[in-house]
What we know:
This protein is α+β, with helices and mostly antiparallel strands. The protein has a domain at 1-72. 43% of the residues lie in helices and 13% in strands. It contains 2 helices and 8 strands; from the N terminus they run ββββββββαα. The protein has helices spanning 119-122, 132-224, and strands at 2-4, 10-12, 24-26, 34-37, 47-50, 58-60, 97-101, 109-113. A 3-stranded antiparallel beta sheet has the order 2-1-6, with no helix packed on it. The protein is elongated and about 140 Å long. The chain starts with a strand and ends with a helix.
Amino acid sequence: MNIKSPNGEWFGFGESILNTGSFQEDTSNQSSTKATYTGWGSTDEEMTFANPISGKWYIEIRHDGGVGPSTFSIKSNYLMYSEEPTITTETIKAEPTLKLQVGANEGNTFSIDLTDARTASLGIVDLNVLSHGNANHAITLIDKAIQLVSSDRTKYGAYQNALEHIGNNVSNYKMNLTASESQVRDLDMSKEITELTKNQVILQASQAMSAQANQITHSILQLLK
């Protein structure tokens, strides 16, 4: 497997950047922050790009030296399209994933799989309709793009419903939290008023006792006269 980036760089087994059958990393390329190649094997080989540049990437599958036919499947984290009508490719949700914080606690997140729906990503840019075969192929690509857009519209509709439900729950949580805070504040106010009333009663009792004591002293002085 070899991959060609939009700026012409090649990656993969047999190419100049990563050309061994073992695990390798390349951080000097201009097509991504880092390119990682797991090496070829009897079951799979994997190429991973960190922060790849935008544009059309090409995947080349080679079959060299074998005596029988080979079968393969291609999986990608980005939308994939074939320029050959006879080749079937698998479409996987595009990255990156948008993660939203929808709650007050850690882990209360909601993920949205974003999709690049530009014409280049949908594979319908610069379509050739100058011949009957090319026109039929263009129709196939356009139908596939319509299916992808319709499918993603359904997906985003589900996201919208889920976010509206989450928004209602957050609003209810806010109302309940405000009501609870109000009750706590009311309880604190009642406690303080009770404490104030008790202190006022004690103060008034102390004043009455002091006045009574002074009155007794005055009465004794009157008797001594």
